[in-house]
Every structure is written in structure tokens, then in C-alpha cells.
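Notes to self after the call with IL:
- keep both proteins in one doc
- input above output, always
- annotate only the second one for now

Protein 1:
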Amino acid sequence: MTSRRDTVGVLTALAAASAAPRLAAQAFPGTPHHYPGADPAYILSFPRDFGAHKEFRTEWWYITGWLDGDRQGFQITFFRVRTAHPDGNPSRFAPRQLLFAHAAVMRPENRHALHGQRSARLGSPGTVCSDSDTDVRIGDWRLTRQDDDRYHTRIRDQEFDMQLLLVPPGRPGDRVRAPWLQGNRGFSRKGPQPGQASHYYSRPHLEVSGTVDGKATRGVAWCDHEWSTTVLDPAAAGWDWTGI
């Protein structure tokens, strides 16, 4: 539902943001960062693992879905990047953690995706990334999970305005409602070496209701949450990803 150009643009920005702060390390020397790798022995625990894992280098919450009987598609993604900026900088505005968000709406009559994006450093006004549960915000863009296991998202852009409620199927405690752990209990291998992996779970079949541009809508959606440090083998050039 997003163009290849849109996705490449966001990933390019992530890569640049992760690398550029290394220049600042000369001004604030200290112990190099330790970015932990995905651990196959780690057991995911909720609601803690709904939240951010700021010690890892990269993380994202990714939602795609259909609305109005498949007449309208949407995508909302929040990215978090831990940069190489040194911890020795005492400023709370130091760009140690960066947030990016990308959203799109696809309608057949438009013949292209309406899309927007945001970026901010953690610590700047209106920017939130909680460790204890899903709560990521950049200004008036947000994705939060409440104690009743319902997700709320609000994305306001020049071309569209989404305000949606996303609810897992079944009742609290039902097995169908539990997060689906990808790979081996949430440990998802990405390459031949043990460290080339992520922690990864999904929330499929989310029931969606709310408004788009002020009009009531209903539909279904899928949420992925993934965090990692090293994914690709040095000999790998990249990856292909398809969502259906």
C-alpha cells in the first residue's frame, strides 16, 4: 500500500540517522555503545514487550489494514533507532534515540497512495516512546495500547486524518487473542549467524473502527512489532518483503 520509493526513503533516513551521530562522538568521548543482539533463550513477556527496547539498535511497530469492505487500505509505522551518539553528552536533547513515523491511505479512485511522515529525537516536546507498553508519539501522531488490550492511533496529515481503534479478536485471556510469536518463540532468524536475528511478534485479525477524514469506517488490520541489532549477513545486499 506504499510505493517502493516511500519505503526506501524511510529506510534510507533510518540508516543515515544511525550513522551520522558518530561524528559527534569526537566531542563526547566515552565507552562505545553495546547493542545487544537477539537472544534465542529470551522469553517474551507481555505487556512489557509491547513497549520499546531502547538498548537495541532498531525497532518498529507496523500496522497494515483494509477498511470499508476492502475499498480503502491504510498503513501506519513507527520506527525507533538508537544512534551511535555518545552517552557522555549531558543534554536531554542529544539524539541518542530517534523516532520516525510513516503513514499512507490508498483509495482506488486516487490511483496512488496519500502518504505522510514525521521524525523527531526522543526528548523533544511531544515525543514519547514508552518502555512499559506500546506508546509511541510524534506530536499529533500516536499509537498507544490501553490496559484493555485495545490500540488507539491518531494520524493527522495534510492529505488525510485517521483516528482508529484496533481490537484483537476474542475475549481477554482467549488463546486467539494472544500475540503470535514469529520464528522460534519470537526469535526470528535473518541470516546464517546466531546474532543475525530479531525478536518479533504479530497481532493479526485486529478489528478496526473509527474515522478517516471524519467519515465512519470499519475493517481489519495486522500489527507487527520487531526489534533487533544485527539482521543482515555482511555478504547480503538487502531483503525483499511482501505483505498480503
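Protein 2 (the one to annotate):
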Amino acid sequence: MYIPEPFAFPDHATAELQDLVEAYNFGILIAPGKVLEAAHLPFVLDRSRGPLGTLIAHVARANPIWRRFTAGPEVLAVFQGPHAYVSPDWYAGRGLVPTWTYVAVHAYGVPRILDSGIAVTAALSRLTAIMESSLAPKPPWTLSELAEPRLAALKRGVVAFEIEIARLEGKRKLNQNRTAADRAGAIEALEASGAPEARAVARAMLDLD
């Protein structure tokens, strides 16, 4: 990823990048080959496994992307954080141009297919538990709700895998190259917007100050 110096995360920002992966865990998995394959997937991040953590996910067995894993190439998982358009009308300075502000994280590593039924169940259960926890106070749905034949069919229909992260990089293009007055004008306009994404960008910009 092209990361100009003003938009780079500071050194040793692993925890902050991991926070973003967890907050925006519906990512894009890109696998190389003669023709690129991509899949849109929810990921689980296990911070305890590996220096940068390990991603866990699954795809439908009918999805051909998992067949790329057996050759052992490195894949890329992209996590898109908040993003918003910024109008030059919001800046204090004149003669400026529009831009797009955003935060993104890229994670690289070699995927490993989880062959055992126990590992597949654990991967599915962990993802479900994380997503159901966000729906509290609703009682969480669990795989135990499924009859054993239905659960067995579900597991046969998916391929679970994990990616120990070998490289983790992030970019936050949040008007750091503009004056304090320009940034203040953009933040004010984004905060006034009714769009949740725009407000999230404004908060991210404020966090840099």
C-alpha cells in the first residue's frame, strides 16, 4: 500500500491496527493467481497467536478461492475503516481541491486450511459469539441451536482457514497535510453531517490532535 509519511501510523502501532481490524472485521480477502480471486468475509482476529496476531475465517466450499491456499502463496486481507469525501469549501484556505479521507489496514500472510472438525467448529463458534455479543441484550444464538445433522452439513459446506499475519500496515489519510484551520473546518462539516461514516472520520481526525 502506498503510504506517504504524513498518513502513516506511528511505529509500534500494532495494537491500534488490530483495534481497527476488530472494529471493521468484514474485510476483503485477495488471493493471487493467473486471475486474482477476492472474497468478502467476516474475520476473527486472535491477538494471542503470533507477533501480529492470526486471522480466522471461512468460505463456502463452492468458492474457488480456497483452492489457492494449497499452493502456499501469500494473500492480502483488506479492512476498510471510516471514510468520507471532503469538500474544499470546508477549508479556510482557498484554491484547494476535493479529497477523500479514510482509514485502512492491510494484513498479509500465508493461509492454512483447518482440516479438523473441532477446529472448524471452533472457528464458526468464535465468529458467531463475537457477532452475537454486539446484539446484547438479545440472548446469543449459538451453534448448539442446530441439530447435529444440520451442523455436520454446515461444516461440510465450508472451508475454514487461518492466516498468521506476517505484515500489518495501515494508512490514515485524515488531512494531516493541511493547516490546523483547514482541518478544523473539515472536522466541523463532517461532524455536522448526518452520515455516520462522516462523523466517524471526524472522530478519527480529532483523535490525531
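Annotation: The helical segments are 14-23, 117-133, 148-156, 180-192, 196-208. The beta strands are 26-31, 37-42, 44-46, 54-60, 75-86, 99-109, 111-113, 158-164, 167-173.
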